[in-house]
Amino acid sequence: ELACGLFRTFYVKTRVSSSITGDTIDFGDVRLGDTACGRVAIINNGDRPTDLEKLIATRLDSSFVLDTAALGLPRTIPAGDTVWVDVCVIPRQQGAITRIDSIVSSSGVDAWIVCRARGVQPRVASVVIDWKERRVGSINDTTIVLRNTGDGWCLAEPSLAPASSAFLLSGVPSSGARLDAGDSLLLRASFRPMTRDTLSTVAPVSIDWTPHAPVSITLMGIGVMPDIALQDVNFGTIVIDTQRDTLVDLITTGYSGGNAELLVRAISIVGPDSSSFVLPASLFTSVGTRRPLPSRLQDVVVFAPTRLGLHECFVDVDHDAVPHGQVGRSRFRLYGRAIDRPRPDVTLDFGMRLRVRPCSDEPITIVLDNQGTAPTRVDSVTVNLGGDLLDVSRNVGLLDLLPGQRWTYSFTHRWNVESERRATIRVVDSAGVVLVDTLVIEIVEPKTSIEASFMDGSGSAAGPARIRLLAGLADEQDVVLPITLRLNIDRRRFILGPLDSSQVVLTTPAGARLIPASIRQDSAHIEVLLTDGAKGPWTIDCRVLGTVLWKDPDPDSMRATLLGTPCYLPKLSNDVEFGIDPCGSRRRIVNIGSVRGITLRPLGQPFSQVIALEVESSLNATATVWAESLAGSQFLLTEHLSLQKGRQHCNFSCSGWPSGLYRLVFMLEQGVEVTNIIIVN
Questions:
Q1: Which among 95, 120, 145 is the end of a domain?
Q2: DSSP readout, 375-419?
């Protein structure tokens, strides 16, 4: 032993005949519950073999486990040889732990095996970061310290994916961080609230030492932002040069989710009609002060218009009810309408179809609407419908219309085909205001038809005959009127038979029926008047029995007429031509057209043996001449008659011809000329 408490050790080599020593193993720091294993040596450092009999634990600690069974004791250790003993330690407590085992051998030398370790444990505490109230939209950063306050190391690995998007955690190595005793891990955390809400998230920290209590990083904060509510103010309609005031919630805060006091930074009024509105002083004194939650700024606003029409202006409020870093501006509208002194304003709507059907009930509507601001009285409503006058006010009396009131009058009218194509209404109120509206009307002409014909082939020969008149009205109508048919036919060619021999059939949508009719004839007409009237649509089939008379061989014609009524115009049929063949013979006359410059004049009719003609020609020509009877028999007189320009006489033999009417035909290259002659033999 030296001064100052120092020791000096001298190593001396010596040789003994029999010696054995034990080694010492120090595991150092081992975490509680962890297992550390190693080997400790027993050495025969003598010059002859030694018997190793057993190990005796003189200082026992249950944290150490020696595998003595694997040694196979007792056993002999040759000189200079080493025996290894496997040993493991599982610390049960903190602090230094030691186990000493005495080696019993045949050498008689005292020797020991010493096992040392220190039980340690890491200690990492959870961290809570509370930002408390922070403005929505703001970015709030801080540093988090994870410190190992224990006496053992650990591997810490925080989660970098917080459950809330308002928080951000960064700065952790990808494989975690080793924290020795007393070490710290610095992390970066950020709170970025986007909504008004109490927000939090927990990020677990993984510690690789199983017995360690759960560790987490808790992040929390409150996103705050004021709210503001403004409302438009509608003063409605007032009379010019008057005023109207109203109590208004000018600025409201704390009722729409706001969780911070509102700061009004500025108030400004914009718009051309700002002079028409008076704002209270309390609105302007609110600038620069924070308003508590919740609160309403109520005061009176005045509307005082000095001109007619719509008035409006806008109040802009600059405030901080917006996310951090933004400029907030909200606006509310003041508006109202100024009108003149109350006056009535009656509008007229005269409604009807512009294309109407005659004799049908056409709807008509009259609408009077007082769109003014004062009541009025309507003294007179008259309507002229195509010449028919209707005094509506006589039916409804005096009419009082309040502001916003509407009066409607509906009725029907039947037009006729001769009505004026115009409808006019005239309205007069108690103030002398006259409203007039005129509509141009198109009256749709009904579809009518009429035909006349001889039935059963009669009409080509003298004797009994039946004439058919077929008339119709295709349009639907609402008026029942008498129906009259007229047939233009010469009484010298057709005479009406007994009335009971004629019949008239009327067909309507209800069916067909035989109806009585009055049938009269004068010198030029036959008129059929139905005793019963009808409304369209209808069809009339009239069959008139009479006798065809022979007047002369020239053809005649007839035409039927459907006489007009207020419901339809007169309708004429096509001309129907008919002729009579004397003696009942077939009559055939060919007339191709006269030749210009050829004139035929019979001389001394009737003829008996010789036909004498005077022919006057303005050209030189050659003609073929023949005669043709009404029965169709032809008699060739000459094939080559030379005609000279000028006047000449021609004689042709007709001896032995039957008596009757003949057509004498001159056929030239330029055309045909015909004249009638009579033969009497």
A1: 120
A2: -EEEEEEEEEETTEEEEHHHHH--EEE-TT-EEEEEEEEE--TTS
